[in-house]
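Subject: for your reference before the review

Hello V.,

The reviewers asked for a structural picture of the protein, and I figured it would be easier to keep everything in one thread rather than splitting it across files. Below is the amino acid sequence we used in the manuscript, unchanged from the supplementary table.
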Amino acid sequence: MAKTPPPPRIGLILTEDAISMDNPKLMGRQSAGHGFLRACLNHSSLRERITLLTPGTQARDAVRKVVQQCLPSQAKELILPELNLHRPATWSALDVVHMPAPMSSRQLAQRGVHRLNGLSLSGVTHTISSAQIVQQLSAYVREPTRRSDALICTSQSVHKAVERIWQVEQAVLQRRFGPFRQAPALPDLPVIPLGIHTGDFAFTPMDRLAARTTLGFSPDEQVVLFVGRLSFHAKANPLALYRAAAQASGQTGQKVRILECGWFANEPTEHAFDEAAHQFGITVQRVDGRNAALVQRCFAAADVFCSLSDNIQETFGLTPLEAMAAGLPCILSDWNGYRETALHGEHGFLIPTQMPSRVGLDGLEHRYADDALSYDHYIGHVHALTSVDIEAAAQALTLLLTQPPLRQRMGQAGREHARQHFDWHHIIGRYDELWREQKARQQADSGPRLPRIQSARLSPADLFGHYPSKKLQPSTPLYRQEWPGVYTAKATASQARDIRQWRMWSFLVETWLPPADKVAQALPALHNTQPRSIGEWGQSLQLSTAQSLRLAGWLIKIGQVRTQAPAASSLKRQIHLICELPHLADRADIARLLTDERWVLHPIDTNTNTVRCLSTELQAIAQQGGHAFWLSPQAHIQDFWLAERLHDAWAQMALVKQLPHALAMRHDLLLASQASDRTQQANDLPALAGQLQALCQAHGLASGSWNMAVAAPDAATPAATPQTPHKGART
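And here is what came back from the structure prediction:
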């Protein structure tokens, strides 16, 4: 006996906009999305196989709130698994991903890019009249869709329109490129209507009486209900209803009240409705259709439901189903999905509609495509020429107003029809059946694998790789960059870690740059003169190749790393420690400094003239382009990274300062650097000495003792020294 395959695991792409009913501009697709989610969560078998695909933190919290509202009472403690909508690489355990809209180009591309070859996609149509949606649907002909994918059409009318879009798009492509060698693997187009929760509209006679009393209806009034957005150009023009109601009221002598349960987008639209109602002298009452309790009350209180849609934006229509579930006979326009929900003569009446042929509307689509018409004006122009048979509507309304048994019979038939064919309990079962079929088709699919490369998803290194002078590769050598004031690797690493926290990099810290500890380890792992490849360096830090290249690129950008070997002149520039006590070289802190070839210890014979020996040393150091520090017997360097190099501008100048400890060295170097910056002419020792004197005075410090020398290749004697060093001198 064949083993039954496990049911598909479903990923639901959910956003607050698709499922929330708390929206000041509530749309039909949101009502449908909310009902669909409730149905999924009420289906015990399906509920266990659902994973939510949600966007960022704030949006995820909003979705969770709606999900919690939709969970049945017996499952309120359930926490559904979640995956990040923006991390499709994590979707590999899913069999089908469903979105409450047509499948997007993004999801189609993501499937191939992230090698989700076992994944099928499904989506559902709502309005298809906008240019954006038409372009999205036509793109399926060119994009990597599969036959195991499914675009659910809510009505046969939508199915026919989508097929027409694909037919034209294929014809255009074949006209450009010739006949297809292989027809596009287009998605399946199953027709599954939207559903409702019919139990929400089961009212008792007491409910009806209470609702009519609350809304202020008299017993002899006949209430004709419309539910939905109140928009003459984008939903249903009220003129046909107003005129038909006025005519039926005049013929029957009955009091007719039109109850509009909806909302206006703006005041001008409301004024337009008022103007039309005033012309026909009818009573119109309006309540807020975004209030769920008020909507329920209106359905319970009404006698007849009437929705004469005349708009191409309409594709299905939930409110007629809700009216039938409430036991109301319906007067509906014979218009797209409406004609597939109610049967003429059984559940109410379908009123004939007309619109001009192509000749009458030709050119309108071009004006819309060329932005000569906005979307609102485009559908408004079409609606203005789409008519509903007002006489037929008046006759239907007259029959229902004057024949209570007919109202009751049609209302009861509509209630049973809605329960049997449109309750979400049945509709969601058809969704689950479709998803099982999709999984089976995908497993049996032997077609070509999906492309991993998309022209809209080319790597910047691919598309713009020719922009820079060079490309970083794993084999690219790296050197630690040294700057004035930052000598050691530890100091360089500390600076890089600090730079990582700058505001300009905040958007990179969480997802792009390695952690701070890795940044701190990265620079000590490099040498200033010995190269190390990016690949080898990254492996030593336990980074992937991608992480290594990214970190190297960023460190080069901030000037902490270089790919070129340092110039020979900078390699020769050494830092000389001049002291009177040779045994200082045995001290641990000094020994640590001397492990770097740039640091050189120069003991001075104390039995000779110290000043003359020092001047000779300085002259020699200056000739080599080096720098020097005088270490007194009290020197105490607490950590070698505190010793910092002098500015490159001093390449041909040696400067020495008698220093009691490293903190003094650090401070004095900062003063010396400022003095150098303020000295206009290089190697001007008197000017430099003057600047040092001024800076010391500005900081309230004694000037101390400095010794200076300038490289003079032709000079046989040392340069003059403005001051001579004295042991123990302190700034």
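For the response letter, the relevant points are probably these. The radius of gyration is 41 Å. Residues 484-488, 632-667, 703-731 have pLDDT under 50 and may be disordered.

Happy to draft the paragraph if you're swamped.

O.
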